């Protein structure tokens, strides 16, 4: 009989996904809950036991958790490990959850101290380790779209450095709370031509500084004022402008030698993929299971699942 | 007896200011109302008559209005005049208000078509004409802080070109509706050191593209996360970052030969002045009465007030 040797949980801000791993590292069964750390009403240990029961894990099966569950606001704080960082460095930073009815380890986040301000990630480091299982020591630039998109440099089996862009959250705030949104249709469908036009506007302004974005955004309003942009197309143009500007900055002056790896293929990932290719940079999409492969890689390196 | 020969009104989105001019162009008396075009409850003509009565203007005294009152949402649309533009060009664009109990002319706005999207101003063109009364044909870069800050090039008695930056409005939206605001104290006083630090961060990123702003803004959060920025100082740092980035882009690679003219000395104007000088560019502050001088210059050129 194939036994569950590890329960892995990707426990984020608003949701969680839990997996039961077999001894060969494959996912035997999985479940999810809308109870991210900001939506918890009871003890973490109780919910984890509920997940383990549902996944059919025995009382001795260890659990490995990643994501915001390890933040100051989560179950137990697992401090950030500073980049560059290897799998072993991450394993050293694992912390045990207190008062847990089974052995529970929590994955630390990563920080970068290379810029004028620090940068942080939590959860993505586990995906990156999963990704490195397939690319090995190769050099790659990885784009992880989301509310706060991460751009990560991998090389030599290490997470070298990374940067966050709050493009998704800024887009929503500007759309819903400035004059720009007033001339946009609610719930307009994605308009590929308007998105491409926004990317082109960003490309044209590539030689300008960070402040140019505040000028370019005003153009979303004025194009509408001169009837050169309809209310249905305006959100897509603005999205193309912001994502295009982000990608141009993240790529830097020298395009990467290998295709950019996009983590997440649907929706937002597809927009990033389109914009990167419009800027002349080839992309590939990461496999969907890199989070679980990362959890397994960490668990094995930590001796948590002998497999 | 000195008679009122012109009533001038700077009629904006949320407020209006009205002036009675004597034959020598001096302002004899003035008044204001919190009834910008978005707060009107009755006909424009009725409110104008009320203002004229209060200012002691006779029934034959003409009125000249500038600002959003000339927009599509105002009393009557006075179309945009495309830059470069002279005083005469602006006068040619004046339109008569309909059904007015006296002779009422409305000043057109300006548009620029030099960028990837059009740009517009309405109201500032009148201030600029007032400013040109004192600088003549000189070459100047003018900074007009506000919700949508305008940067304007003047030369040879013409308004050559301009750009808007939605820095003020974007700041408010990002502060009130993203994760950045969650670690900021409500109503914190201006922190000069934090503001300067933000300007320096923008300066450091000068060689990066427009998208860098979305990365730099995330630093406001992470500095707080690492206890390197207090909640009282965070809004000022973000303000310095955004205003600094705007100014660096507006100045371009070549600093202007003459000091930048800042329109508006209090509050926001002082921040722009500080940031520009921190970036190595000297500034001067425009006289406070340039709006009234602009109204008078336009009225005279239009033969509205023979003076």
- Biggest pleated-sheet summary of chain A: 6 strands, mixed
Helix share bin of chain A: 25-40%
What would you give as the CATH superfamily of the largest domain in chain A? Answer: 2-keto-3-deoxy-galactonokinase, substrate binding domain
Pair with the biggest interface: A-B, 57 and 57 residues
**CATH first level of the largest domain in chain A:** Alpha Beta
| Total number of domains of chain A | 2
The geometry of chain A reads as globular
CATH architecture of the largest domain in chain A: 2-Layer Sandwich
CATH topology of the largest domain in chain A: Nucleotidyltransferase, domain 5
What low-confidence regions of chain A span 5 or more consecutive residues with pLDDT below 50?
Answer: none
- Spatially, the strands of the biggest sheet of chain A line up as 3-2-1-4-7-6
- Mean pLDDT over the residues of chain A: 95
Number of strands of chain A: 14
Q: Count every helix of chain A, treating DSSP H or I runs of 4 or more residues as helices.
A: 10
Radius of gyration of chain A: 21 Å
- SS class of chain A: alpha/beta
- Which oligomeric form is depicted? homodimer
Q: In angstroms, what separates the terminal alpha carbons of chain A?
A: 14 Å
- Give me the strand/helix succession of chain A: EEEHEEHEEEEHEEEHHHHHEHEH
Strand content of chain A: 15-25%
Task: Write a short abstract of this structure.
The first copy, chain A, is of the alpha/beta class. Chain A has helices spanning 44-55, 87-92, 124-135, 167-177, 179-182, 192-204, 212-225, 234-251, 268-278, 290-301, and strands spanning 4-11, 16-22, 27-33, 63-66, 81-82, 95-96, 104-106, 110-112, 119-121, 140-144, 149-155, 158-165, 260-262, 283-285. Chain A folds into 2 domains: 4-136 and 288-301, 2-keto-3-deoxy-galactonokinase, substrate binding domain (Nucleotidyltransferase, domain 5, 2-Layer Sandwich), CATH 3.30.420; 165-285, Nucleotidyltransferase, domain 5 (2-Layer Sandwich).
